[in-house]
């Protein structure tokens, strides 16, 4: 079943590409036509690609892994923050911190620093500091929160990256490629889809276009999380049932011998009768 339909994409303006002179020839397979000097994206291919990406994202979420959303462009910031928060996934909407993936331990240190400041403020350690020192620490905390607050729960490298505008987020894409992390992305006609694992050809400049694609993908992630939750609940119920089931009493060696005795008695005469016949056959 399709997660998004042709009319929804058309209404959101997903088909509008860039000016013909700005195009990237690698996007030719996804371009339907040119109108008034602007390339028009083939929305039939967009629908198919959204479904393909959504299914892959669903499986990643179902396996309990994290997907990092990246969108630092003005039009996409709020939408990405809202959608990623709704499914409890990390996101980056301010400047991409260089080396965030390739130098992940350093980024984790900065996140821990933020947590330590909170802890020391809560237990009153900072109450003896001067106003100036306190202001410096508060500013430092606010800066860390702005840049890294949305990835505070990301304790290990994400299993996938979802990018809006691969040209603007080219550093993030390069880092993911280097580490072998699959990249899902909205790719416009002026971009190169070569380094993207799951290309979604669509207008990455319009708010409506970004929202309709993100909604389809986030719904799929939500489904994956729900299925994971249901599976865990079933496993837990099965484990509880097996604990409640009474265990069969262990039989002693003596009991097993007694049970085996009648069988041995029955088979003994049969063996005796068969012996002369076997001797005759041998002669």
Report what the structure shows:
The protein is of the alpha/beta class and 283 residues long. The protein is built from 8 helices and 8 strands; from the N terminus they run αβββαβαβααβαββαα. It has helices at 6-12, 43-62, 74-86, 104-122, 131-148, 170-179, 207-244, 253-282, and strands at residues 16-19, 31-35, 38-41, 67-70, 91-92, 160-164, 183-187, 198-201. α6 (170-179) links the parallel β6 (160-164) and β7 (183-187). α2 packs parallel to α7 (207-244), α3 (74-86) packs parallel to α7 and α4 (104-122) crosses α5 (131-148). The longest helix has 38 residues, at 207-244. The model has no long low-confidence stretch (mean pLDDT 83).
Shape: flat
Largest sheet: 5 strands, parallel
Poorly predicted ranges (pLDDT <50, ≥5 residues)?
none
Multimeric state: single chain
Report the radius of gyration as a whole number of Å. 32 Å
Mean pLDDT: 83
* Number of strand segments: 8
- Give the strand content: 5-15%
**Helix share bin:** 40-55%
End-to-end separation in angstroms reads 78 Å
The secondary-structure class comes to alpha/beta
Strand order of the largest sheet: 5-4-6-7-8
Helix count, per DSSP? 8
The ordered string of helix (H) and strand (E) elements is HEEEHEHEHHEHEEHH
